[in-house]
Fold:
Amino acid sequence: MSKNICFIYKIYGGKMIERIMKAVKSSSKKRGRNITLGAIVGMLLSCTALMGADDKYLWIKEDSGIIEFNTSKTNSSNGNDGDWKEEHPYNDENTWNTDTKTYINNMTLSSSENNGKENNGYADFDLSYGLRLSGTLTGFNFINNGSLTAKNTSNSSYGIYNELSSKIGNITNNGLITATTGSGNSYGIYNYGTMGNITNNGLIITGDGYDSGICNTSNYGGSSSEMGNITNNGLIKGGNSGISNNNNYSAPSNKIGNIINNSLIKGGNSGISNGHTNSIGNITNNGSITGGTNGIYNSGTMGDTTNNGLIKGETNGIYNYGTMGDITNTGIIYGSTNAVKNSGTIGSFNNYGLLISGSTNVVDGISIEAYNDAGGQNKINNYGLAFTADGSGSYKNHGASDANHNFGKTWDATIDGVAYKIRNVEADVNSTGGAITNIKSFKIEGGELYSDTTKINDSNSTSNVILNGITDTLLVSTGENKLDNSVINAYGTAVKFDNAGGNLTLSGTTVNGGIDGTSYVIAGGSGDDTLTLKNGTTINGTIDGGTGNDTLNFGSAVTRAVANDGINIQHSISGFEKMNINTNVTLFEKTIAADGSVADLQVTGVTDVTIGAKGVLTLRIDSANGNKHALSSTGSTGTIKSENGGKLLLALNGAGLRETISFGNLTLDESLVTAYDGEYQEDVTFETTSVFHSVKRTSGTNEVEIEAKKNLPSRPSGSDELSYEKLNKIYQSLCSPLVNGLENFNVDDDEKLSIFLGYLNDIYAGNPYSYSSELSRKSAGMFRDIVTENIFKPETNKWMIYGGLTHVDGGTKDTYYGKGYYTYDIGSSDMDADTKITGAYMLGEYGVSDTLTSGVVIGGNKLKSDLSNGSKVDGSALYLGAYAKKYIGNLKVTAGAGFQYGDYDADRIAVNRVASDSAEPVMKYSDNYNDITYDIYLNGRYSHNIGDNLFLEPYGTLSYTYIDQDGANEGSKTLAIETDSKSFDYTVGKVGVDLKKVIPHEKGKSILSAGVSYTKILDGADEEHITGRFKGGTDFDILVAHKNEHSIGLNAKYALELENGVLFDVKGTYSVERDSNNNSGKNKTKGEWIVGAGIGYKF
Structure:
């Protein structure tokens, strides 16, 4: 038997719903994920004209393997008159992942009038849709985190419409899907083709006509329609059926896979309907399936049905007119006429719970037999209770006799491989009329279970037990009482606390009751009661604490097996003064009332809400209804507080910036720390489920305002603290009041957060203004090397002139944060810079004496660095230098100084892949700025003859370079930045050795040399930062990457000196840098080539 049961309170191993619906989006880009059903339906009905003006809907179509999108109204069924584009619309809020073929809707897609036509196989008809799907979209998945609404006055309307013969992958609804119509039909999800699995974690609601929450159907001349499995963790409500699998007569048969209901399914006619020749797989109900006529109706073929919760129909609980597999009931099946009516074939049927009729016959067309009967088709092996209830307090055993009544009896049974005791309350059953009187209860006291007043001595009497009764099935008294992995069933109240003050812990237990429409499923007494609901427990009905000082505990202080274990509260709570939250608890904003209507969910009477160390209380805000929530009107004065880091979260659902959320009479304790109060994000215990929205206290103690978060979300475990701090500073500058830049982004999930961090990373680590200083340093170094490596010497009192061309081709690869900084992998965060320097120079050198020369050099370079993020910096540099050379024997000493002026044009490309609809997704910012470079150096080279014109020449150079870079100003564009001026200085040492061969010939000599060099940055290699800011914002750092301190070069050169004074050389160097820095902001060379050629003349 399933222990993972849901609703009213479900503690289950799965993803807790954080996003249900998005309210209608305003021009100020207010964002959220919930919308109130009553409010939106009312608004749609009364404000058609206004909604029509703001309609935004979507048609997604596959055509010849290409997926296209349309957002305009069409007048042809094939949509050829639409505005089709391959680029997905609404990219300010929605996400389209082309790799996974997943479309995520985070906004309100709505239509308030006819917006298209469709052909159903024999005719065209008008329709209104929020989302329309067509073509072969196999593998295409749709996730709704927002709202899909459709309305029509005279034709059909569809929240999601999958048209004839089309194919679609899986659909997940975390938000709202609703459809209403005047005289047509409306459907939440409508399938005319093939659809994958459907998972509903939100609300699917239609009108009150011939409408279905989920409909799988086919028509004349069409093909079969097919759906995968349906899992409901939310609410599905249809005017006719909650889930419908039907077709017109003679139309092809349709198929739905397995249905698992962990929550609420409600239909005006049937909760689940399977018609004609159609088929549905297995049905597992852990929640509530109710219908105005039948809970479950079948005239086709169904697999096995397992009911652990409630199946209820105003006529029949289950009505079978076709073929059903085996039925296992551990919960309650109720029908006002029959619990089960059968006009077809049902396989084996085991009843371990309650079968109840509000009329005279519990069943029709199937017989109730003893538990040990041989069984078979159309027979019920009855281990539990089967009786009628007339609503006035009178009860009769099935068949109006005492046959197989089971009152006061206990049976052993193995259900899903687990051994259970089925215990039925004691009562008197009249042998002639079957009247049930003197109905007793079970009692739990001091940890022991009693049948009335008789202690049950089984060693495991409080675990793996199914307790069946009529009303007050289990009385709770004093002591530490606990039920594990059990079921409690009742027609009225299932659990009743006595007036002495009881204590009960339910773990892995299901409680079903309140069938009479007036009783609480759990009811407190006049004493001080304590009820604890642990993981795996389901309460199918409303609860009340009574008149004492009562406590309701959720979860426990033990570590949960699954991180997202949670309790979803979808029915109202009253009478508990204290609520302790020690697990993930979500209070929904809507529930299903006893009459089947949608109503506000309320928690009343509470005065003390404490969220413990392992607790998270999520309140879903009804933004379409004055930002109300379950704790808005408790009716009592009290406090909400956090202990040891417990968190209160608001699911905004459309409540945007500077809107107020009130908690009525509840005071928000100071232990609820907002992002504006805490020093670090880790201190925050009161925030929203939105990535970038936080709460800020007002002057009142019972309300907060919605604001932008002061800091980025907390660093993930194992992430780099420095990188978080740097990006956080950029984020804070973005949020500065004079910038207000957050409105240019839509970030509401972890994937978008990772993309947004990539945007910040480009500013920090991929900024062109941080690359020009390295270009200037390398440019000055080129001219220095030209002087120190020139082997030609002028005659005494004569000049030598020399000029040439040189080129550098290389770059760097800067690694900062790697991949997947948060949850999603947004690709490499490496930054590649492709650098090129091309220039020309001329030097003049004069022979002062035999041992001394002096000279000047002038040159210019074109500088360029292209970054992998699309940004670039182009520049030009003018260099002027002077030097002197002293010859002392075989030693040559060179000393010089240079001045360089650089002029740069930078283009910064900002790609905003999470842009709001008011922002440009790609922006180009440009500026022109300058820098000045000073360079001084000292070089020594010793030439040692090792024989036959072969020389070994070791050398060394020590240089100091100073660069003064101007600030940049990108102008007045949105999110433009400006930077301060910055100076850099470097001390560099270089040593090397060349092997030189002099080859004399008739008209001069040739010189061949090859060698290796080693360069070390002695000072200035460390990571530095340029100070920048968004215009009007706070300062942040722009990274100038760490320079590798070590590089090794391989050098080769050929020189020619002729007797007529002509000089020539050509040279090449390949250098690689060795990474000496283990920090995350490190620079790795990609290899650098330097080539050059020159020609000159000696006078």
